[in-house]
Amino acid sequence: MEPGDAARLRPGRAARALPPRLLLLLLLLLMPPPLLLGRGLRAAAAASSSSGAAAEDSSAMEELATEKEAEESHRQDSVSLLTFILLLTLTILTIWLFKHRRVRFLHETGLAMIYGLIVGVILRYGTPATSGRDKSLSCTQEDRAFSTLLVNVSGKFFEYTLKGEISPGKVNSVEQNDMLRKVTFDPEVFFNILLPPIIFHAGYSLKKRHFFRNLGSILAYAFLGTAVSCFIIGNLMYGVVKLMKIVGQLSDKFYYTDCLFFGAIISATDPVTVLAIFNELHADVDLYALLFGESVLNDAVAIVLSSSIVAYQPAGLNTHAFDAAAFFKSVGIFLGIFSGSFTMGAVTGVVTADVTKFTKLHCFPLLETALFFLMSWSTFLLAEACGFTGVVAVLFCGITQAHYTYNNLSVESRSRTKQLFEVLHFLAENFIFSYMGLALFTFQKHVFSPVFIIGAFVAIFLGRAAHIYPLSFFLNLGRRHKIGWNFQHMMMFSGLRGAMAFALAIRDTASYARQMMFTTTLLIVFFTVWIIGGGTTPMLSWLNIRVGVEEPSEEDRNERRWQYFRVGVDPDQDPPPNNDSFQVLQGDGQDSARGNRTKQESAWLFRLWYSFDHNYLKPILTHSGPPLTTTLPAWCGLLARCLTSPQVYDNQEPLREEDSDLILTEGDLTLTYGDSTVTANGSSGSHTASTSLEGGRRTKSSSEEALERDLGVGDQKVSSRGTRLVFPQDDNA
Amino acid sequence: MEPGDAARLRPGRAARALPPRLLLLLLLLLMPPPLLLGRGLRAAAAASSSSGAAAEDSSAMEELATEKEAEESHRQDSVSLLTFILLLTLTILTIWLFKHRRVRFLHETGLAMIYGLIVGVILRYGTPATSGRDKSLSCTQEDRAFSTLLVNVSGKFFEYTLKGEISPGKVNSVEQNDMLRKVTFDPEVFFNILLPPIIFHAGYSLKKRHFFRNLGSILAYAFLGTAVSCFIIGNLMYGVVKLMKIVGQLSDKFYYTDCLFFGAIISATDPVTVLAIFNELHADVDLYALLFGESVLNDAVAIVLSSSIVAYQPAGLNTHAFDAAAFFKSVGIFLGIFSGSFTMGAVTGVVTADVTKFTKLHCFPLLETALFFLMSWSTFLLAEACGFTGVVAVLFCGITQAHYTYNNLSVESRSRTKQLFEVLHFLAENFIFSYMGLALFTFQKHVFSPVFIIGAFVAIFLGRAAHIYPLSFFLNLGRRHKIGWNFQHMMMFSGLRGAMAFALAIRDTASYARQMMFTTTLLIVFFTVWIIGGGTTPMLSWLNIRVGVEEPSEEDRNERRWQYFRVGVDPDQDPPPNNDSFQVLQGDGQDSARGNRTKQESAWLFRLWYSFDHNYLKPILTHSGPPLTTTLPAWCGLLARCLTSPQVYDNQEPLREEDSDLILTEGDLTLTYGDSTVTANGSSGSHTASTSLEGGRRTKSSSEEALERDLGVGDQKVSSRGTRLVFPQDDNA
């Protein structure tokens, strides 16, 4: 790679590289002296401050004591953050080492967890327990805890903010380890700071082609599958809990709604490890798309589902009995929040697309990148401010940005934005996984219940099976490209849990049930990431899933580009009576082995969406053709002229879009390119060429030229009808 | 630029671009409905929750009320952050518009402030004042306010954290505007989150060449100048305050230490606007370096100086009298904190350099960038944890990273890190300036005192004059390239205040004096950024400062590359008696007009540093030559072999470093390249070529070849002495 590599092989003066761990150890050794020095300086400052025995002594002392405490608290915050940075640094260096040595059994997330565990052990058993600094006030308040308090301290007023509730058992514990508390974050940090970059990046880096190709299946797995999984796991766990109660292992209340909640949160899969390995080995792209799409969407579904379950509050004395009204209200809340968040995300994506389209911001990559970042972040805040779920909004914003805005960015901004979110994603994800490892030891309210844990493992296994196999069966009835048994097994196997399940579990650990669920979730995550993640590569070969599948190259794609099928025409019907004759093109390609093409219903929705997207949405939001002036009716003329950017007229090669290949395999489409319409019929199988246009714009798109080259057909007479031109059908059809 | 531009000129179908503000207005209009919808959903959820009249009603109600309040609080946080994002978005779009139309009278920071002002007005007079949610507890505590409180609410315990002190006058005010409070950040946010990226970027993007060339002057301006400025302004303000007391305009205490504190914080200059204009117009690079270097370092000095002044606590009854012991303690604290922070920063930079040198992380730009980011962030935390100043540490870390680590990064990582910090810097800076504009209206404790304000303007003017002119005079005694009058006037003019002064002022606004200072600082910042910043371009032409100065191109630099001067040799002395004969090279170039070169004392320290840096530090920390195995004595052999990377032996072109040109103009240096030593003598003026080597390594560096080409000299016999080769002196010398 580098010239230095050649030098390395040279004998004699080859230098021995210092192991990175050695450097880090040096760093650790270097840490204490400055810490002491610094503390010395501060102590000197404080001592000089407090040595003054002035008349204002007492209040000065109070001020200083408060200041000192605030300073000490700040110092501890810094140390705790430093701990995490050290963890992440170690993780990065070890990841490099693993990549260097091609180690695949342990992925970076699993590694981060291990390091978190180690540091957790050190913190738990290594740092001294200090006596609690809390002061208990015995004043009682009438009705509730306010969010801010004003406390009178000898005439001075201090403002306090509500942090949270403390369970009675822990209140009077003298031994409170300050360090452990400092490394324990407010769970909302996950939802407000750490998860958004991860989820946004997932949406923004979606491989659109295969995602949309398998959209129906992905939606089915994500929505129906998660609901099924939640229900089944919930019921199984309820049985386990009942068992525990009988056996006497249950110390406190554990309701059915709690079980359902557990089912919801544990249904959020996060197969990071598996996908990373798929990526590296270039495993089957459809399988990748299915897994990735499912995991990304079921995170969204799990959040909203768990919120809806929590919001389930039936009327009547028993707050945990079934109440149809409350049930439907929960369903309504689910739908409302989900669609609201979806809309927020889509709207922000659309606004960003329009802004980047109509300004020349692409001349200034810094401004463009900053704007992109701000708009994406604003989605989250907007959704949260409106009472929806920020993380879900951010997901759909990412998908929208990838689909529309990305095309408007300058080349430099594209790489800048991708890199920016990639770095944020990387740091946030490894941070969460480190924290998971840490939390096993630093979390002070664990409830380990072997029966529950074993029951949970069985439940998620069965839940996953009930999720994957039946759904795949039904999907295969409609899919052109069946999901084979080995794919289904792989999907079954890839049910890893990760960041989302953890974050949902840690969000509220006030009650006994929630604490038990949190502990169990943690262990499930550990097991699935380490054991199942580690077994991915062997499993891939055992299931004979092909790897090393390259995306078809540019030239291949060009050749197969003009394979069209007719839209919405039942192959058994006659052609429409308006004497249009349609081009018929059909080619061979990778789908020739895929069998029967006449089943169109499963792709109908998609094709409808795709035409709409291509003919209207993309022209509105990006610079791609066809120009709206040609596709919109005449009365929209003014609007069309406003929304069409001049670049469209130059851009006669819209098929450079990545997902154009979708039309090759999915069904019949009517697509308008520039002033030409190419319509294709799927039922007949002859080859015919498209031609250049007469009248209107005579510019030939290069793809048309390529096709003519490929198929060797000359000009043919075309008829013009309004703004659409249709081609005469070949006699062979 | 783009093909689309050509299309734009095409008549007929030219599209009318939607103005960006129109889009934003649309966004604003779209906001209310979702807000209402979302609130409706949440209300429905809450209503269904609270409709249950269960036995656990009261505690459930409490819980829900607390939850609702927490949720409402979260919602308001989101809305306040959204406000800032909107501000930043508007700023970005307007910046683009200004750049598009080449508007230079208003820089982005001034623009951000204006938008902040507008939104501040809207928030202050547009949002309804809501009654305070605070609950006043009348329980008294014995001695002090603890950082955490446990409050007993009907058997439940809630934890509260100390937020801050409230002045008695405001405690009972019924009208508290929640919105205003939500957009008022804890001042520590500036020091912990916003300032570090700005300062790091300043260090990382330092134009090293000119910075180091003017290092002495910059240090003088930054340290001595800031101290002088602080003292003068402090004293002048003390006079003003005394005047105010006599006139009866002073409502509360205002000590001498407060005046000195004001002097310290207001001495932190931030000529962002001026530098941006300099950059755009390519104004004189030395002036740029002086201004930039001074502003960056005096920020650091101002922070530590203000902390030292605050730490000044004399013994005895009068806490504000002069106490020599306390004074020297303050000085000691200043030196200790400054050097401690410097060391932290440098150490982290060095560790990062070593890690990137000895691992092959450059194969993985993502990992490398993430590591770089984490290590830089860790500087801050480390310094804070040790009790030093994080911002100062981060500055020196940035400089160190730019000087060493940058050379070890892969090409992609270099651009990634630069872009990452550029974006963070951009966002943070504009955020702070927006906040400044906002703070004029949202800050609820302003103290407007016309006498003080006018006095402050006069004081900073005089302080700047006392800072610039005398120092320049003394520096010119020693400088080769004098700082001309027009430069001095420009520097005098460029005393803009900005983010640092603001952050230091807002850090503690508890007392009357501090509030007055904060208000005054805000107004000073407004005035200097808008008026003085706006007047930069006219001032540049009025002072006849040349613009459009390009950095010498690569080829120019190559030609003049081999202009060396002898190190440490007094031109009046004889050459050293060891019969070494030295190469003498001297060329013409941009310095020929700069006059006398024999004054070497001012550059001695720099030259000493430069040799040390080039011969030892750079080889240890980067891949540049010369190899340590050649420069270190024999007993360090093992260490040298450990620390030398194999790339060094290939890297015979160390002069590709940016700052190598420094040696062309500064003085005499002995530099070792590979196994060759080129030593140059500044006093004589003849041209001689260097030659290739005999023995040892025979690889010719391309620069040597280039020189031979340029000067047309063939091989000459060289003598070898140990690991250094010296060249025979030309007879012309």
UniProtKB/TrEMBL annotation, chains A, B:
InterPro entries: Cation/H_exchanger_CPA1 (IPR018422), Cation/H_exchanger_TM (IPR006153), NaH_exchanger (IPR004709), NHE-6/7/9 (IPR002090). Its main location: membrane. It is a multi-pass membrane protein. GO terms for biological process: regulation of intracellular pH; sodium ion import across plasma membrane. The keyword Ion transport applies. Pfam families: Na_H_Exchanger. Residues 695-712 have a biased composition (Basic and acidic residues). Residues 676-693 have a biased composition (Polar residues). The keyword Cell membrane applies. GO terms for cellular component: plasma membrane; recycling endosome membrane. One of its GO terms (molecular function) is potassium:proton antiporter activity. Belongs to the monovalent cation:proton antiporter 1 (CPA1) transporter (TC 2.A.36) family. PANTHER family: SODIUM/HYDROGEN EXCHANGER (PTHR10110), SODIUM_HYDROGEN EXCHANGER 7 (PTHR10110:SF62). This is Sodium/hydrogen exchanger.
